[in-house]
Amino acid sequence: MIQDITPYRFHNEFQKKEPAPENYFFSFREQKILLLSRQDGEYCLPTFRDLQQTLSDIADLVVYLFSIDDIPLYLVKSQNVLDLSGDRLEYAPIHMLALVKQEWLYFAAITASHLSCWYAQNTYCGRCGDVMEHVPGQRAMICNNCGSIIYPQIAPVVMIAVVNDDKLLLTKYAGRLLPQWVLIAGFVEIGETIEDAAKREVFEETGIRIKNLKYFGSQPWGFSGSVIMGFIAELDGSDTIHLDHKELADAVWHSRFQLPRELTDISITYEMIEALRLNKKEAENEYIRNRNDMQ
Question: Phi and psi of 52, rounded to 5°?
Fold first, then answer.
């Protein structure tokens, strides 16, 4: 998954680190990230030395984010202040990071994007409208006028792989540029338990009821500012699908030894589907086991 960057280590504890010209930084513009084009044609993350201005020119807009091993990483909160008059710096689609040789960079960039959105959304106080400032020694913003303190927000999401004997329920989103087959997922609502959210999402989107939820794993997903909690569940009752066309374009029971291979390996969706995939021999063995259990 995207956060699996071993042997590198992610250090997200907040520290007061002053930037140096040789340090890497992130800058985002809409859904794009600032990258440096090297002479060999490869892309990499820029350092402050690659800019046409000094650190002192943008010091008020630079914040420390986190470190990968002993590499500190920073954010420039406003892209409008950067001088990109050179021909080697450009904003590129964020998915291009999958081609960058630094194995940890994709995860770091998505996490940085999450924090970048949080900073942008909290420039002003949502209670009184005054300017927000950094809380010394914490990753938090404070309004000195009314005292409101805001910490980074993480939205909980449930993802459910529904199994019916040797079949897995896969869906396609409606109205999104994502044609692949995926699992059912949705945000946890106010006052819900994680388990109740999983049951609700499956029923709302497909009319299917589930039982025997088993926890699979989790994943931070900075694209949506969320953390995804994956579950495997069994069908409870009828397997007839009643599609919510506002959420889904399709939902189909797929044989577990003929599951589509359409996703990259960065997501927990991929990990869960692969964990439930059966080749033909495995399917035969499972059939024999189930038949023996019934006898």
Answer: -90, 10
220 — phi, psi (to 5°)?
Answer: -70, 135
Residue ranges of the chain with per-residue pLDDT less than 50:
none
Say if CB 46 and CB 79 are below 8 A apart: no
Q: Is 148 exposed, middle or buried (0-12, 13-18, 19+ CB in 10 A)?
A: middle
3 to 54, 147, 267, 280: CA distances (angstroms):
33, 35, 9, 31
| Tokens 């009319």 found at | 207
* Cα separation, 122 vs 136, whole angstroms: 16
Model confidence over 29-62: pLDDT tens digits? 988 999 998 777 788 899 999 988 889 999 889 9
What pLDDT was estimated at residue 97? 81
**What is the predicted pLDDT for the residue at 94?**
86
Q: What confidence score (pLDDT) does residue 146 get? A: 97
Position 203 scores a pLDDT of 98
Q: What separation in angstroms does the CA of 181 have from each of 137, 169, 228, 269?
A: 44, 10, 17, 10
